[in-house]
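Below is a filled-in request sheet from our internal design queue. Each sheet records the structural input a requester submitted and the sequence that came back. We keep these sheets so that new team members can see what a complete request looks like end to end.

REQUESTER: design group, bay 2
PRIORITY: normal
MODE: inverse folding
CHAIN LENGTH: 64
BACKBONE (tokenized):
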């Protein structure tokens, strides 16, 4: 099962990082209520002090 994390930047951008079983990474951003491909370079944003990881309740309120 792939690992995943959903994050929000200080400016309000919501993105998720999905790690596949083989270690590959994929980034998707929430745009207009749907998940769209994001740049792989955005992976580093999850480590920024201005970015927060969303909890389970917040993630459940987002589109699948």
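RETURNED SEQUENCE:
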């Amino acid at each position: 099962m792939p690992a995943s994390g959903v994050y929000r930047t200080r400016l309000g951008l919501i993105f998720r990082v999905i790690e596949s079983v083989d270690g590959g990474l994929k980034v998707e951003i929430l745009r207009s209520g749907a998940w769209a491909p994001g740049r792989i370079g955005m992976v580093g944003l999850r480590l920024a002090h201005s970015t927060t990881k969303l909890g389970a309740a917040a993630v459940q309120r987002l589109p699948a």
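SHEET NOTES:
- The beta strands are 3-8, 14-19, 25-31, 34-37, 52-53.
- The two ends are 16 Å apart (CA to CA).
FILED BY: M.R.
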